[in-house]
């Protein structure tokens, strides 16, 4: 049996998230907000699913580049692993720094900084767009001559470390503060305080920040304030992903001339007029969410996330055994559920259409194995009649349970 052991990363991360939650409560700290944690994990679920399905493609890209254009023909060895680690960390620093300094890159990376909490769930906030952009930067490694197998192995190990620096529990770590990116350093990076903005871009080693002048120590008298300079205040899965892209397009549209438009695309985020956010929210009827949500709604969303995380673990483990129609159906159900959870937390009434669509996919999927199209058509028509006939009744019961109306 061939398993994709990347799926085990999900229970691994969930264990440490729960451990951090327990320790923070034991120490009397309120480091977790349910809605923020759900939105953080939602973003991470989409990224995990994409990674599981696209890892082979990324490997193919690295392998092709190395074989066709690699400057050196490098062979694995102890010294070469050390060189690859340093090169990977160096490339990461510049990817990360440019992602903060160039709008077109920030449009993908901004999602990672939206959470007003700072805990292990924040490490999951990596969008599918960010994954592909990072891969573009990492393509320099096979061009140098590093084999694809080494690169993908290093990225798995190198990518594990940042998870553990998204936490507020430990203080400063002594001599390690001078060598590694510690939780203290990364708290600075996620802070929106003016003194902390655009600092500490390193992933594992802090030496690059000290070398290139972007290092800032966490101050005892300046507690970090997490999130964006202008908070998003939205639980919407879609809006979190696309709000800055829309703001960027609106800002570009307002400029005259190609040069001015290109300056917006490749300029710094702070150059965009802050009022553009409000224009985008008005255009798409986005209402900012401020308060906590009631318990029944929380439970419903929480159970959806538990079921989704469990099913995603098994899907990734056994993904080689699923046919592509089943994979596509699972991806559709996952995306609908993520949009669904965000919409429920914003108490949108159109969420019922998503529930119906998800139900249709789930009911139709088991009948995919039937060979005769006549049987499939008959089943689909029967399901359609049942769903249409019970539509109004289901809608009333649904809103009564979820929104208590």
Characterize the structure shown:
The chain is mainly α. The protein folds into three domains: 208 residues, no CATH class; 47 residues; 105 residues, no CATH class. Helices cover 62% and strands 0% of the residues. The protein contains 17 helices and no strands. Helix 4 runs antiparallel to helix 10 and helix 14 packs antiparallel against helix 15. The termini are far apart. The mean pLDDT is 89.
Q: Write down the overall geometry.
A: globular
Share of helix among residues? 55-70%
Please trace the helix and strand order, writing H or E for each element: HHHHHHHHHHHHHHHHH
Strand proportion, as a percent range, falls in under 5%
Total of helices: 17
Oligomeric state, counting identical vs distinct chains: single chain
The CA-CA distance between the termini, in Å, is: 49 Å
Look at the structure and give the mean pLDDT: 89
Instruction: Name the structural class.
Output: mainly alpha
Radius of gyration: 23 Å
Largest sheet: none
Number of domains: 3
| Low-pLDDT residue spans | none
Number of beta-strand segments: 0
């Amino acid at each position: 049996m061939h398993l994709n052991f990347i799926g085990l990363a999900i229970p691994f991360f969930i264990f440490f998230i729960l451990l951090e939650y327990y320790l923070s409560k034991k120490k009397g700290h309120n480091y977790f907000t349910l809605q923020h944690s759900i939105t953080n994990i939602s973003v991470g679920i989409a990224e995990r699913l994409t990674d599981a399905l696209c890892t082979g493609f990324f490997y193919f890209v690295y392998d092709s580049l190395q074989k066709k254009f690699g400057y050196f023909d490098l062979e694995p060895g102890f010294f070469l692993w050390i060189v690859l680690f340093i090169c990977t960390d160096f490339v990461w620093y510049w990817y990360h720094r440019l992602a903060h300094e160039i709008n077109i890159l920030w449009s993908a990376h901004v999602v990672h900084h939206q959470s007003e909490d700072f805990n292990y769930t924040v490490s999951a906030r990596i969008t599918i767009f960010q994954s592909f952009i990072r891969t573009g930067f990492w393509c320099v490694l096979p061009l140098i001559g590093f084999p694809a197998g080494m690169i993908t192995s290093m990225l798995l190990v190198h990518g594990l470390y940042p998870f553990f620096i998204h936490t507020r529990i430990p203080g400063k770590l002594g001599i390690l503060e001078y060598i590694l990116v510690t939780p203290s350093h990364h708290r600075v990076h996620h802070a929106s305080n003016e003194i902390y903005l655009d600092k500490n871009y390193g992933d594992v080693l802090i030496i690059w920040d000290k070398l290139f002048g972007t290092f800032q120590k966490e101050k005892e008298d300046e507690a970090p304030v997490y999130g964006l300079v202008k908070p998003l205040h939205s639980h919407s899965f879609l809006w979190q992903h696309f709000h800055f892209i829309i703001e960027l397009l609106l800002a570009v549209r307002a400029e005259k001339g190609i040069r001015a438009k290109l300056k917006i695309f490749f300029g710094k985020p702070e150059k965009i007029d802050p009022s553009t956010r409000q224009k985008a929210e008005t255009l798409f009827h986005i209402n900012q969410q401020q308060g906590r949500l009631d318990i029944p709604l929380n439970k419903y969303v929480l159970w959806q996330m538990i079921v989704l995380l469990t099913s995603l673990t098994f899907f990734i483990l056994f993904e080689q055994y699923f046919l592509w129609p089943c994979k596509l159906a699972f991806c559709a159900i996952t995306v609908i559920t993520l949009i669904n959870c965000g919409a429920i937390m914003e108490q949108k009434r159109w969420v019922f259409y998503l529930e119906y669509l998800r139900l249709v996919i789930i009911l139709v999927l088991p009948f995919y194995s039937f060979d005769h199209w006549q049987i499939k058509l008959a089943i689909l028509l029967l399901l359609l009649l049942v769903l249409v006939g019970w539509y109004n009744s289901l809608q009333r019961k649904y809103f009564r349970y979820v929104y208590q109306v």
